[in-house]
Amino acid sequence: MTKGNINVSVENIFPLIKKFLYSDHEIFLRELISNATDATLKLKHLTNIGESKVEYGNPQIEVKVDKDAKKLHIIDQGLGMTADEVEKYINQVAFSGAEEFLDKYKDAAQDAGIIGHFGLGFYSAFMVADKVEIITKSHKDDPAAHWTCDGSPEYTLEEADKTDRGTEIILHIAEDSTEFLEDSRISELLLKYNKFMPVPIKFGTKTETLPKPEDAKEDDPAPTQEVENIINNPNPAWTKQPADLEEDDYKNFYRELYPMQFEEPLFNIHLNVDYPFNLTGILYFPKMSADMQIQKDKIQLYQNQVFVTDNVEGIVPEFLTMLRGVIDSPDIPLNVSRSYLQADGAVKKISSYITRKVADKLKSLFNNNREDFEAKWDDIKIVIEYGMLSEEKFFEKAEAFALYPTVDGNYYTYEELFNKIKAKQTDKDDKLVILYASDKDAQHSYIEAAKTKGYEVLLLDSPIVSHLIQKLETTKENISFARVDGDHIDNLIKKEDTAISKLSEDEKKSLDELLKEVVPSEKFMIQLEAMDSDASPFMITQPEFMRRMKEMQQTGGGGMFGMGNMPEMYNLVVNTNSELVGEILNTKTRKKQERLINQSLDLARLSQGLLKGEELTNFIKRSYDMIK
């Protein structure tokens, strides 16, 4: 038997591991199973190239809980270690530079990229165990070795009588970590981190129901048998070639990833690249709700089929974090707890690749089946519009598939829309005005007024539409967007021919003074306009700039300081050519004038959904009085 000191001169290395190195103690199991997987796959490689003469067979990793003895076992059938290799890999390599590590990282160990530099994955075992044993037999002919360490720098290494190849790690679970002796907790961790590991992982047994014998009676119970409980799928869909997968394979994998999700995904994107970095994965477009926050943290990041995190910000462009699925890359640099990304050029390249791949897929879906793409537009537009805002390259590519739906249910690309409306909706200053509505019902009268003129009205109702149209206006030449209720239609698209007012200048001045005395000035700016005589007498609009800035402020950024908290201000557009407006001006009694003005104002407010509470009650009472 050999006794020795681990190559570290600082006594408190183990408490430091426990306290600083890993923020999450549960990942010890992921680390140890990753090591067991590496040992198994390395053996497979050595047997394939003829460097190992053993039979590879069908190895698996087994996890066993011995609650009474307070032990947890992780057993593999991989390449194992000789006593010399234990000495080298466990006692020396793991702690080479430990003093440097302590000096450099004791104040900020959580932020440091330590695993790769110091080989400390195995030592995560000491977070939950006060004693760890390794019993290992190499695939070579050397005798088995038994290593023991109780968390101090001292260890023992002796020969063991193990005859089968592979390694068994035995953790003597510490008093403060007995949760890891519960089957349910271990099962939870295996499913979280190791669900798709490339080597089968056995954890206990499960009961399987067998078919009934032909001669069984109807009320006879079906026979059962105990079988090995293999908790993982070693060959998940993303590890296969797209050519080898059918549509049903993708759907089945989606259900495997999200067993509680009952809606089918709309479509998927299979990622597969091996240069200049290695990345595989499958992304799914689910049906999107208007609430962008709710959707995030559904993409799972793996490294060589080991789950790392579902916080993929930085790897996946932000607008795609609303998607679901899996990304697997060995080239993503992670810190010691594998929970956070480190800044790295490769990550930016990966992010750009994913953006390009998603844009190409959307373009091909649009080209191959436009009708289906249009049918799905409402469920995917949030992602596409957000991408157009946040990623310049995606914005450029989206020109080919981003859609602009109209209130009548027609869908246009930008180029199609431009060609459709340029003849009619170009104003006197040669600017193309694109009209849009955000609510077909609430803005119905304004939409109808525009359609009477032969104008197209888009339906743009996503929460980020104000940001998007701002982006389009600054990118495209000589265009502007105007919400259809932002002004009366002749002001939204000003042509050369303007209507002549029936009122004289003196009459207009008298009307303006009268209205200002009755209409609350803190809420409405009065605007006298000569319109068609059959247009609405009173119309409420909100200036495009003011409303858009408020909306942008409310959806984060883009607005002017404090704009989101400003009181609502509206324009009251009064049609000087309306018969009713003429009657208001010519009515002899002041009381009747006020009544007509208030009634007309309330009707205009009602059409915009602005009449509520006491004011609505008063309006209804006044209306009944007027028809008595």
TrEMBL record:
Protein family per UniProt: Belongs to the heat shock protein 90 family.
Source superkingdom: Bacteria
Designated name of the protein: Chaperone protein HtpG
Biased composition range(s): Polar residues: 226-238
PANTHER family noted in UniProt: HEAT SHOCK PROTEIN 90 FAMILY MEMBER
CDD domains noted in UniProt: HATPase_Hsp90-like
NCBIfam families: PRK05218.1
Keywords annotated in UniProt: ATP-binding, Chaperone, Nucleotide-binding
Pfam families from the UniProt entry: HATPase_c_3, HSP90
Region (Disordered): 207-239
Lineage: Bacteria, Pseudomonadati, Bacteroidota, Flavobacteriia, Flavobacteriales
InterPro entries, sorted: HATPase_C_sf, Heat_shock_protein_90_CS, HSP90_C, Hsp90_fam, Hsp90_N, Ribosomal_Su5_D2-typ_SF
